[in-house]
Design brief:
This protein is of the alpha+beta class and 450 residues long. The chain folds into 4 domains: 75 residues, no CATH class; 42 residues; 79 residues, Immunoglobulin-like (Sandwich); 155 residues, C8orf32 fold, CATH 3.10.620.30. It is 20% helix and 37% strand. The protein is built from 7 helices and 25 strands.
Length: 450
């Protein structure tokens, strides 16, 4: 009660205020007679910010809510100053703080999901133009639209010891044989030959087309077998050629020194009418070399099937085109023919490849491509059409022959064994087996298909 109690007992009052933590509390106290108006005393109010912090604010005399007010005690009236945190001492008036407090927002699942979506959209808009983001986004899109993997993961480097065993058996006649085998190229940082051991030793080692070759000669009696083994120790490194259409120059910038990779060669025919017509339809008016190669790569990737169905020699380019299918050599020969037909040098790179799933090495063929760069420089990069690799070489490709434009030598690579005989036509059989003796991989490399 705010009035005088019976018996002269002192009056009791209740004060309400907001503490620094933002809580409204009450405290009973003896009511004091209000002092006579005097000089203004500094007063403060406390309030809570939306972030939860409590702030004290000075109340200026001219800005205090309501200005001077009148407090009623008994029958007399006396003007008193309004206190920002005090309420009239009456039970009929509900306590009310001078500052309205706003509760912190509730983080419901719906609210959290909404914020996550907004942040994701902002991040997508900000980073979609970054090359490091474009490749994964394009790979995800390709997987969603085609159902095929948009990227591949490989070791950064791979050290191999591989045993290659070859044999020739004379079933019906005695044979005099010759076998020529090239040594793998040594390319520092990409394709390093650390060691090579043969049994037996070759009869001779010679240079042909700037590459080392080994030669064995001998005689096999009827029913006998000649065997040769080669152990390769190689360090292979994943290599990505960071080139795009912005870097590439035009077909007219290709030097004449690469004309040998623009003409007809064994199995490669850029003059075939069907090949020329298809190349022109794929490429159109495009003259940027990078874009030309990418268009041919994508067309073949979308339209040709991988299929093994041939003898020791690969098919002609027009045979593969007619069948719309072929193995690694067949498709690489067709890619070279299509590119040459529109003036871009492309040639064969032959050797063996490792399949880590089956732990198996086997013969393989792919392409080297020439791309002139703005400013006069150039790159020679790898395209492996049947393994979906464009300007990328994984550490499982071992090169032991690179086409130099000489069709005769290219054909001889496919017929390493040659033999002569007397009497009727002989029956002979050759075998070739690869065995992984040691494999050590390090690091990781992600390749995104363009």
């Amino acid at each position: 009660m705010a009035g005088q109690q019976q018996g002269g007992a002192p009056r009791r009052a209740v004060q309400y205020y907001v503490d620094p933590q933002g809580k409204v509390v009450s405290r009973p106290t003896q009511a004091q007679q209000p002092p006579a108006p005097g000089p203004y005393q500094a007063q403060y109010r406390y309030y809570r910010r939306p972030d939860g912090t409590v702030v004290r604010q000075r109340v200026e005399e001219t800005s205090r809510a309501g200005g001077p007010q009148t407090a009623t005690t008994g029958t007399s009236q006396e003007p008193v100053r309004a206190h920002p945190t005090a309420m009239p001492a009456t039970k009929q008036t509900a306590p009310r703080p001078s500052v309205q407090m706003r509760a912190a927002p509730r983080w419901t699942a719906k609210r959290v999901a909404k914020h996550v979506v907004v942040i994701a959209v902002i991040a997508l808009l900000l980073f979609a133009s970054w090359p490091m983001v474009q490749q994964p986004m394009r790979a995800i899109w390709n997987m969603a639209t085609t159902g095929q993997p948009g990227f591949q993961t490989f070791p950064e480097t791979a050290d191999f010891s591989i045993l290659r065993e070859m044999s020739l058996t004379a079933n019906t006649n005695s044979l005099t044989y010759t076998i020529d085998i090239p040594k793998p190229f040594h390319i520092p940082g990409i394709h390093e030959r650390l060691g090579l051991v043969t049994a037996p030793l070759p009869e001779s080692v010679f240079i042909k087309s700037e590459q080392e070759w080994m030669k064995w000669v001998g005689t096999i009696p009827q029913g006998g077998t000649a065997s040769i083994s080669i152990t390769y120790h190689m360090k292979l490194t994943s290599t990505l050629w960071d080139v795009d259409a912005e870097d590439s120059a035009l077909v007219s910038d290709i030097p004449s020194s690469y004309d040998r990779y623009l003409v007809k060669e064994w199995k490669i025919d850029p003059t075939d009418a069907n090949v020329v017509d298809l190349a022109n339809r794929i490429v159109g008016s495009e003259r940027n070399v990078y874009n030309i190669l990418l268009k041919i790569f994508r067309w073949m990737d979308d339209n040709l099937e991988y299929k093994v169905e041939r003898s020791a020699e690969p098919n002609y380019c027009y045979e593969t085109l007619a069948a719309m299918a072929g193995d690694c050599d067949d498709q690489s020969i067709l890619l070279a023919s299509l590119a040459r037909a529109v003036g871009v040098p492309v040639w064969l790179n032959l050797g063996i490849i490792y399949d880590p799933v089956r732990n198996y090495w086997g013969g393989h063929g792919w392409n080297n491509v020439y791309i002139p760069l703005k400013g006069g420089d150039y790159v020679i990069a790898t395209v492996d059409i049947v393994n979906d690799q464009f300007l990328f070489r994984d550490p499982y490709h071992l090169s032991d022959y690179i086409d130099n434009g000489d069709g005769t030598e290219l054909r001889e690579y496919y017929t390493s064994w040659s033999y002569s005989y007397t009497g009727p036509s002989p029956s002979a059989k050759s075998t070739e087996v690869y065995t992984v003796l040691e494999l050590d991989t390090r690091g990781s490399e992600i390749y995104y298909k363009p």
